[in-house]
Amino acid sequence: MINFTNIAKVEFEKVLAKSIEHQNTDVIEASNIIKNMALISFTRFAKSSSLYFSLGHVLSTSITGLHILHAMRCRDGLVRPAQIINLMASVLFCNIGIIRDVLKEDNGDQQKVDDDKARLIDHSFTDSSLWKYKSYRSNKFIQGVSFVDSNINYEIVSRAIEYSDFLGKHSNVVADAGEIDKYIRAIQVITLMADQNYERKLVEFYLSAKEADLIDQRVFSNLADFRTKWIQYFWERLYPDVGEEILLLRETSEGRTIVSQMYSHL
Length: 266
Hints:
single chain, 266 residues, 11 helices, globular
């Protein structure tokens, strides 16, 4: 049987070694923490039934995150270990709440979606149906895993998790968004727009959002309408969230490749 979790781990660590690992002792220690966090995340996402929020998606976003860190290092000369850990923890766990039974309070048909008792979730839908609640559930997840919770600044990471969702209930831009908040949202957008299988990913994104009842029918009446209008939506609504990060990625050859691929889809 193919171990997709292990394949993702190997690919992630390959990029990690090129991006930030070979620096001082503190950064190497931070890299080891990130490796363990990645394994925790990939193991859970291997069980996801969501079309869009899959193991492949979290691997892609985490690799984009590593390229952002590498670009920051090239621009500034260094990246602080705490910054590395908080940013990558936010990337690795911002969508993990979408997975059924990922919380200790989950129990089959009953899923924890708020501070009240667990609710009945219809199993005729995929995990995408939990999209509306994934920020809450992702924060609950990191609080419930002692290794993650003890190695991050929870206030920074929980805020970034909520801000990462550019289509859900936390999609509005806030004036006081922090640096990591902006990076995490931009990473989610850039990963979608630069995907090698962009057309397929766009369909998966739409179908997952529709399943979660997050598609505004006044903007996108159906899939064909969504595919026609998405580029305009990106320029009007999403580009302001990623402009600075696109410039940052251009600091490295790998980043320029991502930007080039992204623009080829626009």
